[in-house]
Amino acid sequence: MKKSKTSITFLCTYVLKPNMIRVLENYDKVFGSEFELKLITGHGEAPKDIRKSYDIYTYDKPPNWLNPYSLGYAFFALNSFLKNEETDVLINIAHPLPLGVAVSVLAPKYDMKSIIRVTGDIFNEHNLSDNFFIKWRKKILYEIILPRLFKRSDYVITVGEKLRNDFLKRGYTKDQVKNLPQPFDADEFTAPNQDKGFVKKELGLDPQKFVVLYVGSLSWIKGGDRLLSVVKETARKKSNDFQFCIVGSGTYKTDFEDISNSLVKVIGYVPPDKVLPFYQAADAFIYPTRSDGLPNVILEAISSEIPILATPVGEIPYILENTYDFKAFKNKIVERDFEHVNKEKVDYLNFNKTKESYLKLVR
After folding, report:
1. Which residues, listed in sequence order, are joined to residue 242 by a DSSP beta bridge?
2. How many Å apart are CA 56 and CA 246, to the nearest integer?
3. 150 and 65 share a domain?
4. Band of the pLDDT at 50, cuts 50, 70, 90?
């Protein structure tokens, strides 16, 4: 029996992470009305909206020796799916290594369209390590092996123009590499004007203080230690004027919780659909990451029309006219010198345009 709709399958990690769920929700907005959507994961649990929109193939019985977060899992799960299910298009939801590698290798064997979604700043990965051997292993992996493997795919989606140019320099054609960010609906972060002091009070923040917001993982790679340093340095200069609001979890969360609540309000993890009030309460947004592609939180801050202070990483300098080394952050904060961005000029916020570009790839 002939299928009524073309099907698109997303290869996901063993456990669906919150950021992946957000991406899947946005892809449903793009593809859901026209295509049959499927996803592959190792864990059957998923939010109700995801289960409603996607047919979920669960690879929940990997061999005992198999690391569920490894390249092995990606190949075993995808191969199992392809032997038992049908699809027309394969896309890795994130993680070019290992998920993108599995898609680029197995899709041609089953004669189906493959799209590799490359996030982050993969050609800069080797610079994040001080260990000589790790640095060169990553350089060979990301500079040589992955670019060669990904050429097997029909398309490579880069989340930003800088990353697209990096692929073009490595011999890819303009037709194969497309700069397409995750579909982002700016309207979700455009709410009616509310009294900022009232919103601060509702969230347990001090209405009298200048609130600096951070949203994201409190990990080393995202600059959790840098943020901690900035908070402490700011406290030494203007502790009574500022309050930092930390939305997220990770390695450094307990370090922030040890600081006075009058200076730092640690919220912890907040689901993406519940984070808007924190942007409404914020007077500025801070993002001292070490490695990133085109972070959604930057787009969320722009959509919420709050000024931003961020490091020059990945695609961020393509959006913000001014970015800074994190060492300059404390003075910028004290001086309240943040980057104001006109959201009307940010092309990535045009949801309909992005949607049409995605549809052209899979039709």
Report:
1. 210
2. 33
3. yes
4. very high
- Largest pairwise CA distance in the chain: 71
Report the distance separating Cα 95 and Cα 124, nearest Å.
15
Coil, strand or helix: which one is 37? strand
Q: Is the pLDDT of residue 196 over 80?
A: yes
Whether residue 205 sits in one domain with residue 147: no
Cite the DSSP H helix spans in the chain: 18-31, 48-53, 71-84, 101-109, 132-140, 146-150, 161-169, 196-202, 224-238, 253-257, 276-281, 296-303, 316-319, 329-334, 351-362
| Residues in CB range of 265: below 8 A, 6 or more apart | 203, 204, 205, 243, 244, 245, 246
Question: Distance between CA 244 and CA 266 in Å, rounded?
Answer: 8
Sheet of strand 284-287, all strands in order from the earlier edge strand to the far edge: 264-268, 242-247, 210-215, 284-287, 308-310
354 belongs to a structural domain: no
Residue-wise pLDDT tens digits, 259-301: 988 899 999 999 888 999 999 999 999 999 998 888 889 999 9
E-state strands within 150-208: 155-158, 177-179
Query: Residue 166: pLDDT above 50?
Result: yes
Note whether 162 and 59 are same-domain residues. yes
Q: How many domains does the chain have?
A: 2
Answer yes or no: do 214 and 162 share one domain.
Answer: no
The CATH number covering residue 57 comes to 3.40.50.2000
Q: Coil, helix or strand for 320?
A: coil
**Cα–Cα distance list, 90 to 99, 101, 226, 275 (Å):** 11, 12, 38, 31
Distance CA 266, CA 263 (A): 10
pLDDT at position 64 over 80: no
Asked which of 180, 212, 244 is the last residue of a domain, the reply is 180
Query: What does each C-alpha distance from 144 to 92, 123, 137, 167 come to in angstroms?
Result: 20, 10, 10, 11
The helix/strand/coil state of 117 is: strand
Q: Which one has a higher pLDDT value, 175 or 132?
A: 175
